[in-house]
Every structure is written in C-alpha cells, then in structure tokens.
Amino acid sequence: MYLLELGGEDDAFAAREARSAATGVRRIGPGIALANAIDPVRVRGLAYTHRASDLLGRTDATLDSARALLEAASIDREGTVAVRATDVHGSTGVSTERAERELGQLLVDRGFSVDLEEPDHLLRVVFSDGTIERDPDDGVLEPLDGGDEPVDERRSVCALGWLAAESVRDFGTRAPTEKPFFQPGSMDPLLARAVTNIAGARSGATILDPMCGTGGVLVEAGLVGADVIGTDAQSKMVRGARENLTHYLDRDESAPIGVDRGTWHVGRGDATRLPLADDVVDGVVFDAPYGRQSKIETHRLEDLVSGALSEARRVAPRAVVIADRSWASAAREAGWGIEAAFERRVHRSLTRYVLVLSA
Ligand SMILES: C[S@@+](CC[C@H](N)C(=O)[O-])C[C@H]1O[C@@H](n2cnc3c(N)ncnc32)[C@H](O)[C@@H]1O
Questions:
Q1: I need a labelling partner for 123 at 20 to 30 A (CA). Which of 143, 235, 301, 345 fits?
Q2: pLDDT tens digits, residue range 23-35?
C-alpha cells in the first residue's frame, strides 16, 4: 500500500488526478490519500500529488503514536536513512523537527545510520488533522467504520512511509508569462497537467485540444509522453501554440519525467467541425472561451460549446472540459456521462468548473 501526499487546495480534485497514476486511491485525511499500487513514472508527472511512499503504517496524529508505530514496524531495508516530517496545513501542531529527531533516533537504535544529504531510504512522516468533506462526485473518499456511505468527519492521522516516487516540480518554468508566446487567459500549467492526466495523457495515448489557444494543455500532455493534436480558430493562436510546442517538446536533452516527449500537430480548425475521423483520439481536453472573452469566431458561445462537445464525443471516449460555468446539461445532450465535477476558485471573480466526461 502507498501513502500519497496531496498538494493544492482541493483534495478531491488531487485524488481524482492521482487515479491516473495509482489504483485504489482513497483520501484518509486532509492532504493524505492511500493507494493500492502506483506507477512511479506517472507519479513523476502528477501536478497535485507531491510524493508517493511505500506505507509503513498509519496511526493518529501524535508523536507518541508515531513512535509506537515505528518501534513496532518491521523494516526490511538496508543502508542509510533520513526522516522528513510534515504537518499538513499546520493542522496538528506536532513539532516536525522533534518528530524527525526522535523517529530518526529510533532508526539509529535499530542499527541504521543517518545520511541527511543522500539517504538510501527516506522515511516520510505526515501528520494531518481536520475534516474531510464528503464530495459526492469524487468517489474516492474512504468509507468510515466499514460503512458504505462516506460522511464528513474529522480525521486525525499520522502516516509513515518510505519514499517511492516524487513528482517533478518544474511548473514555474512554464508559467504562461514565461512561455515564448503568451496571451491573457492561458491556463496555469498545474491545472493543465492535472486535467490532461485525468483525460488519460500518457505514452502511447493521443490527446486533442480543439481550442488550444497558446497550447498550454498540449505542452503538459506532451511532457507526460502523449502525442498531441491541437486546433484553434485563430491563425495567431495556431502560430503561437506551434512556437510554444517547439520550445517545450522539441528538445534534445532528456525529458525530466523519464518518458519521451510526445509528438505534436497543430492546425487552424473549427472545434465544431473537426477534421478527424471517428474514435481516433484517447481523450479531449478543452478550455471553453469565457463569456467575457471576445474571440468566439462565428459562433454563439452556447453553440460553440455544444458543437465542440458533440465533436469531442465523436472522436474520443473521454473528455475534460474547463469553463467559467458548468455546461453539464450541454454535455449530457451531446451524449456524455458526467463522471465527476469540480469547482476551482481561481480568484474572487473567477471560478473554474471542471467536468470529467466519459462515453
Ligand atoms: C480559453 S482559450 C484557450 C486557452 C488555452 N487553454 C491556453 O492555455 O492558451 C479558448 C480558445 O478557443 C478558440 N476558439 C474560439 N472559437 C473557436 C472555434 N470555433 N474553434 C476552435 N477554436 C475556437 C479561441 O481562439 C481561443 O484561443
């Protein structure tokens, strides 16, 4: 079993993304989830999971409990060790320095030597206390007391695990304003990575963004190994997306995630009349224009989104749609089932709705 350390503000969304890299994901406390198995390369490409560790055990969020757990645990490892502790959102008040020192001493007592710089094995200790909100759509909240229905409940958790995989935190180098081609309204690379992972981006998969804008979604999908296709109604965007994709995907140096970057094709096109045969892509992701965005070429916004949803359904079995409103009924009318829905507050006047759709 594995311990996942979630990042960001929205654990349900983070857990949904983690399912692209792990099986049996269920949240057990704020910022923490468990998984049955992980794919370490895919964990490297996650946006909202920081680490996956081989679970040693879990208990309640006190240092005494953590000590008791480590004392009793069987450890089939050899080599040097280090302990790193974290207190999620400062919720437990446990001193992480003291936890690192005392748990490190327990390992020394059991014959291990400590190497803080380059340990052979790093023990992650995660303390967390707080309420996990029941989210009817995420489907990944661990039921309490063996019951069928998960409920909102306060959880006090300490989980210990040996670090197995970490996500690559290089998103800052792809902030919209860092890109060779920038336009206002470009998607943040963390969100773009998460939605492409949810849509199924990985080596061997093909991901389409039919309204690709600056190519933010395509760059993130290509970096986790997917082959990507983009269209946009504006030639300016097509040129700009090509510039960005050349910059981030056509590189000689080895890829940080450990998979080859995907191939890409971008052309001018109308999302409501895609120049693609039926069922040729694995997942569609698009960021619908917002009500106040002016460049909606030739279509009313409603017709554009409905037409794009129908075309997405024709070419792919899954889609993720990001917008400033829900569009759930338009998605159902286009033949999609709603697998999950998330609301992500960007700032006071902008909430992004993320719909996860499947055929
Ligand atoms: C919100 S932006 C996409 C932003 C993009 N995700 C990014 O990171 O840059 C929406 C895009 O839809 C494009 N668009 C509008 N109508 C379209 C249509 N009928 N077909 C294809 N693209 C269209 C616009 O030109 C714009 O680039």
A1: 143
A2: 999 999 999 999 9
